[in-house]
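fyi for ur records
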Amino acid sequence: MSHTYFKIWIHAVWSTKDRQPFLHRSIRTDVFHHIKEKSEEKDIHLDMINGIDDHVHCLISLNPKYAFSDVVNALKGESSHWINSQDLLRLKFAWQPGYSAFSVSESLIQKVRNYILKQEEHHRKMSYAEELQELLKLHNLVVSQQC
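which gave:
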């Protein structure tokens, strides 16, 4: 076969440093818009982004020419630099080291989009820590320490 075909969907989640509620509603839209804009400039297909005060969910269609860790680190690094350079917060902003990433089958893309879209509604019932534990369990990931 002389062509390369791929469709790699990943649901990524990462939190603010120490899970501090830095992503206030007043700045969240601008931050997410900026991340989306920068992802396009970097040839990263960010299908959807949303979150609440202490974490972000993204749905990314990964181009296999990029390592996923490089993609996430680029989005996190550039966005934290931008947040700080814009003086959006009184304190210095940072993301927590690390992230979670889960593969998504094509048949579940719309379900994941809806899940990401409804983050505020979802977190009226569940904390980020509870959500992350649920995602880890759903994907059969065993973690020996608290996330």
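DSSP finds five helices and four strands in the chain. thats all i got for now
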